[in-house]
Amino acid sequence: MIGNFFTANPRRNANSPKLALIRKIGEVRRNRTGFSFPKTLSVDFQRRMEKEMKAKSKISGYAIRSGASAVFLSVAFIALSSASNSPNRLQRSEVASGTYAATGNTSSQPRAFSFAERVTFQRAMEDVYWRHRIWPKENPARKPPLDAVMSQAQLENKVASYLRDSLALEDYGRPITAEQLQTEMDRMARDTKQPEVLRELFNALGNDPAVIAECLARPTLAERLIADLSGQGQAKYVKSPQRDAQGTTLAATALNQSVYTLPEIVDTCTDDTWTATTTTNAPAGRVEHTAVWTGSEMIVWGGYSPILSNSGGRYNPSTDSWTPTSMTNSPAPRGEHTAVWTGSEMIVWGGHGANLPLLTGGRYNPSADTWTATSTTNAASARVEHTAIWTGSEMIVWGGDAFAFNDFNTGGRYNPSNDSWTATSTTSAPSRRAGHTAVWTGSEMIVWGGSSTATNSEDFLNTGGRYNPSTNSWSATAITNTPLARDFHTAVWTGSEMIVWGGFFLTQHGSRQMTNTGGKYNPGTDSWIATIRFNAPKPRVSHMAVWTGSEMIVWGGRGQDYALTNTGGRYQPSADSWRATSLTNAPTTRYEHTAVWTGSEMIVWGGNTSGNFVNTGGRYCARPSLPPITIIQPNGGEVWAAGSVQQIKWDGNLKHSDHLIIQYSRDGGAHWFRIAQDIPAFTVSYWWQVDNFATTQGRVKILLQENLSITDQSDANFTVQGTP
CA torsion, points 474, 480, 485, 486, in degrees to nearest 10? Predict the structure, then answer.
């Protein structure tokens, strides 16, 4: 093991202050990566660190909860940065200001950052991620600020973690160089699956390549390199008194020998195309796992790989990178559980352990990388093959089985705000079942289909029910024109209809067969309409389905004779039509994978392919072409205070070299005056000090500077409120 190297190597200086520090603050990461250091921390080191703190107390003036270790770590890392950023192939150029240059890429020199600065930049990035986190519209409460879900101590811990990783790599003679950081920035810009989010991250860091390299690229790169060391099980270390001394002295070396260049972010999302997700640092391949989309990350957890697991990973499509989820206090290993996203946490529950169903669960906070157990008091009984939905304030689990002909028509409502369970009513509830589906409409949970083994024989079902949590009551779904009775199908909610598709059905001879039929259920009229079969994907089970906002996409699974597939289809309910998904660069054939929708892409991951559990995946782009320019904000209805600073936002099919003119109207568009020009289009936002003239007819117009005929303006008026 890598951790044992430190004590086993006789050449190692056991009294190295840097090593002792690494041992102390490295324990947090042990459960996440398997990379461990001895726990021993000498009293001598503590004394020397206290003495060091007194000598360096003026370095940052930043009060932190981690006290001596955090400041000491910052000092040590500044020394490391000075030593590591030696001349390389990066070219010299004039240092740019903190914004994109109008003529092309910006450059800036590597430089040292204090711990306080790094925490400030970390918060700016976390704020971008938090803004993109999905806050359920059903939740009547306003989305809380970042500070409510992520403490200052947690921010500091994230910074300390990647600095510690960097020091560990340097201790092994593998310091991260400026060249590596430039390469990592280039990789992010080239491989990003969310270019708009990456642009926001760059913007949050002042579009300064040095800041981006140190505070965005370094954490990702250090995590990956540490994981590589852990996988190798051994590493080389060359003792150097000079290098050890750098851990306790502030660097005086000027970091002006190389230059970072801001890379061009490539928009890789073209409709009906596939791009692979990275496998670097990805979780082990698995089945029976879950995946949720947070708005900025996909979190996969649990499953079978090939033993039951309680590990997971967070995939960030904006940087095309993986981060392991903490295993500290994580739920017991399991498969066939459920997971929901609440807006700030992922809740996993149920499933099976070692041949036994479970009634335990856990709440995972990705901002803090922490787990909290769910209460088992009054919890729904242990089960698998159940369903779970999120209402905006509660998770509702329902149905499923406990093995051995023991299906349920019971359920439970879990409220994370008070960690409590309440049973769902069984009055007029659908019959016992497992392998069914459930969707949330905004006011009701609709369950449908599945199969029952309660009578020692397998009965396929085409019945369902609508559960209203506000009244704790059930009403049956219509049985007229229902699709074939089935189980292990998929269901999505469109905003007005539930669409079910695929799955197993029972033939008249009593054999299981797969289907490519489906139906659209409208709860407003309590009626069913069949989906067309023309051009539909081939019959299948164990596939996945997502709703894009205008289409249902189904993909993968097992077809006839249980053959695996990597085909799929896009169903447009308004036209009742299908079209196939591309096979070019599609992931390998698989089943029991997961799929999430990001807003522009479907990300599939994991699953079983010909008996192998895979940790590969793919991103499928399914979005119509955007107009050249689209104003996002202000687009009508906003109320901005005169003289305040507000953000004008846009999107569109714009080239990296494009520039924009921004205009403003006080009278609904009758007259315009210019407020900015030469704005790089790919920054997607501009901070504007709002006009001091009060009006209820404010509008913004954006024009492409290279072609003034390409333009967009606010769809409706917004208000500029005068100061009293």
Answer: -60
pTM over 0.90: no
Segments in the chain below pLDDT 70: 1-106, 230-258, 268, 405, 454-457, 624-627, 724
- Helix or strand (DSSP H, E) at 535: none
With H, G, I as helix, E, B as strand and everything else as coil, classify residue 644.
Answer: coil
How many angstroms separate the CA atoms of 221 and 536, rounded?
A: 43
pLDDT for position 455: 60
- Name the amino acid, one letter, at 617: G
Contact 132, 293 (CB under 8 A): no
CATH topology of domain 630-721: Immunoglobulin-like (2.60.40)
| C-alpha neighbours within 13 Å on the C-beta side of residue 254 | 3
d(CA 161, CA 328): 16
The H-or-E segment that residue 709 falls in is: strand 707-713
Q: Which residues contact 491 (CB under 8 A, 6 or more apart)?
A: 437, 438, 439, 448, 449, 498, 499, 500, 501, 545
CA distance 606 to 712: 41
Can you give the residue ranges of every domain in the chain?
2-261, 273-621, 630-721
Residue 440 DSSP one-character state: E
Phi–psi pair at 286, nearest 5 degrees: -165, 165
CATH topology for 273-621 is Neuraminidase (2.120.10)
Residues 688 and 674: beta-carbon distance below 8 Å = no
